[in-house]
Amino acid sequence: MYKSLITALVAILLNTPVYAQSKKTVIMPEDQQERAFLEQAGYSRAVLTDDYVFMSGLMIGPASGETDLKPGYDRAFKSVGKILERAGVGWSDVVDITTYHTDMRTHIMEFAEVKHRYIKAPFPAWTAIGGAELFDPTAVVEMKIIARIPDGKKSIGKGPSPNAASNAVRIRIEGFECGDNCYLDYRPLDAADDADTQSALCSVGDCEGWFSNQEMPPEYIGRTARIVVGTGKQYNNAGDVMSDDFPKVTAITIDPAE
Question: 153, 184, 209: which is the final residue of a domain?
């Protein structure tokens, strides 16, 4: 009997899909202080597989001096929206929401009211769970989300594709450096031979993995690529904003190795 049971269990395990076998990319915070906390705790803000985006729980609470919880809820949904955007999906791709509440009966209706600003029909699944406390003592809600990556967007961690963008730039990769921020060093292919190397913040596409590891594999130096450059926030080591409009790569496609 036991032998038959073990055989059956082995057969089930062998035929059960394993998420770890899928291609996986992680999304880490761009804020250096928040990133340092996640690295110390040992988890990612979100994980992308071939088909889904799995987002870690986000703590939600009022800012200092706030008595109304709605602004905190709204900030949280805006933050989630930015993570979804980095993953190349949107609110319409969300398939499951789980929330944990320290005082559900008091907070649930206001939370739902703010949620409706972002979540539209057809609605995703939503499970709300009551609990005594959350990790952050100031938080009243923790929210985690799962989104499905549509077939047309399955370019793990790539973000928007620069191939069809009118402002895309053809470049040669010169390096990738990390300090308080991570920068892609590059030279436009149409630049003069004596032109200076340019640098831009980069945490999308292939930069996502380099950003997580704080380094770029050396074999990428000299590779050509197509990028779109916008602007973003540049932080110092204390987490303070040094610039609101520093050059930032918003999309990148690296050419195959020759």
Answer: 153
